Every structure is written in structure tokens, then in C-alpha cells.
Amino acid sequence: MIDWPNVTASGPRELGLKPEELQKSKCVLGFIPVIYYSVLLCVGVPVNVLTAVALARLASRTKKALYYYLLAVTGSDILSQLFIIFVGFLLETAVFHRDVPSLLLHSVSAAEFAANHASIWSTVPLTVDRYVALCHPLLHRQISYPARARKIIAVVLALSLVSGVPFFWWSDMWRNSHAPTARDTVLIWTHVTIIYFLPCSIFLVLNSLIIRTLMVRQRQQRCHEECGPKSAPPGRLGKTTAMLLAITSVFSVLWAPRTVVVIYHLYVSSVHRDWRVHLAYDLSNMLAMLNTAVNFFLYCFVSKPFRGAVRDVVLLRGGPLYPRRALPQHQAPNHASISSLYSGNHKRWQRESTPLSPRRATKPS
């Protein structure tokens, strides 16, 4: 750590600076954030575009609402990378140093918050869908289908766009030297509630119910093992559920530091005046933006169908648009088991396999 002084020894007249500018915190990281965000953008955007194409193929092939929700999360991450990382951090901060028209600055701020809210809240319908699928499977068959998923996604995106409008008046934490006003307090608490406390509460409650349901089913399986495999519903942690838990856990971990720093800035010390808070805010933003580029690797690690779809996209293979249908019963392979051939069609196969009687075999005279 470099101990940057907050107050210089020279007088204000000698330096030609205002008194509040003498206490302005310095960026300890220097050009590291610029390099970090450039690499994150160059890696994150292509990776998310690849993810979107693979998920679109899986959605059209399987007609599952799950892939539509994941596609919405990926699209929102792309918007966050373009508005927040490219426009906000790189263009405004690194290139123009905030020397842009005030109207444009505030408009971009509202767009950044809208994209941020969409990226986070697109995960909430996914969590609800997985909860209903595991805890209320019969209800899930009735209410979970692609058309309804698209409507839910459209509502979430519209609400995210509306929720970004109040942040047109968001104060620039790096430049404002005055104490936070009442409006700043309302906006900051609204921000941390929308992007962290409320979605994390939903994730915590639903994920806890999912884990509890799986534990109950595991106990039921142990108690009914002697009754056969169909005596109790499956209790293992499926890959889709594991992927959901990974997505929500990574989000909670990566966004927690930024939430703490924003509240600390509000009540304890300003980012403008204290280089330590400035450093913490820079690092917390870097961690939070990392969340927009890690989902691809989580999907690849957990989901075999997703890996196959990515392989098809990379190798420029079309792949089947629809899943392969099972062979009809009369075209079953010769090496199929006797029990599988007889299940459900015992009488029909018995008639076909029985030799003709003498009366039927004899030609009519």
C-alpha cells in the first residue's frame, strides 16, 4: 500500500486549487483498472455472445423454459458489459475523464443501472422456476413453458428499464466532495436494496427450500430402499440445481464488497476524500463486474448439453433442431432385452411369436 496524503502541504493559492480539491483522493491502482476492464470486455463479450448462441440452440431444440431464462441472463450481462464497462468505466472515466455533457453523463448512468438491474433480476425467475420444478413438480408442468417464460422475461426487462430512471440523478462518488444529501441517501439505499439485499433474500429463501426438499427426499429414499427405486421421488442434487446454486452463490460473493463499500461511503467516509475508500470502491467494482463473465464457465463445468451446443457452434455444425425420437416398437433392435420388448405389448408380441395352428396353416380346399 502507498500511503497517499489526503492534504497537501502547499497552499491553495500556490496550486490554484479549491479547498475541497486539496483533499481529493488519488487512484492508487493507476492504470490497472483500465487494463482489467479492457481484458474483461475483450473476453466477456465474445464469451457471452457464444453463450447466447448456444443457449438459443438449446432453447429451440428442447423447448424448455430454463434455457430462455438463462438466455435472458446472458443478454443482460452483455448489456451490462457494454454500458457499464465499455461506456462507463473505459470511455467516460479513462478516456474523457468525465468531461462530457452533464445530460449525457446522467443518461448513461440511468442506462447503466437499468442494465445492472436486468442482469441481476433475470436470475430471479430462474430461481423461482427451479424451486417450483423441485418442490411442486405437478404445478411446474402446468405453468412452465416457453411462451410464459418469454412474457416473464419481457416484464423483468421492462421493470428494470423503469427502475433505472431515478438513477438519472445519481451522484458521482469519485468527484463529489460534499456530504451525501437526502436524495443521495434515498438513491443509495434504493440501489443496494434492488441490486443486492432483495434478490439475495429471494435466493437465500428459495435455495434453502430447495436444499431442504432434497434432504427430505434423500431421507425418504434411505427409508424405502427395500421397496424399489420408485417408492420415493429422486433426492439427488441435479445438474440444473447445482448450476443455479453456483450462479446465485457467485453473485452473492462478488457483489457483497461493493454493497458494503457504498454504505460505508454514505455514513463513514467519502470516496472523494479518503484514498482507502477510493481503493476499496475500485476493487469492489472490479469484483462485481467479474460476475458478468463467469457464467459461461459455470455452464460448461456443470452442463453436458451446453458443452455440446458450444462445441457445435465453435465447429460451425448445425446440430439437430429437435431431439431424436425413439425407435418404434416394431423396429426395436435384435439385441434388446426380452423384458423391454414385452413391456406394455405382451399380448401382441405373444400372438406374433406363436406358431400357426394346423387349422390356420392348412390351405383351404
In short:
The protein has 16 helices and no strands. By secondary structure, it is mainly α.
Would you mind describing this structure in some detail?
It contains 16 helices and no strands. The longest helix has 42 residues, at 182-223. Helix 3 crosses helix 13 (304-314). Helices cover 69% and strands 0% of the residues. The model is unreliable at 1-17 and 321-365 (pLDDT under 50). The chain is an all-alpha fold and 365 residues long. 27% of the residues are buried.
**DSSP strand tally:** 0
Regions with pLDDT < 50 over 5+ consecutive residues? 1-17, 321-365
Q: In which range does the helix fraction lie?
A: 55-70%
- SSE pattern, N- to C-terminal: HHHHHHHHHHHHHHHH
Shape: globular
How many helical elements? 16
Distance between the termini: 110 Å
SS content category: mainly alpha
DSSP strand content? under 5%
What integer is the average pLDDT? Answer: 79
Gyration radius over CA: 29 Å
For the biggest sheet, the summary is: none
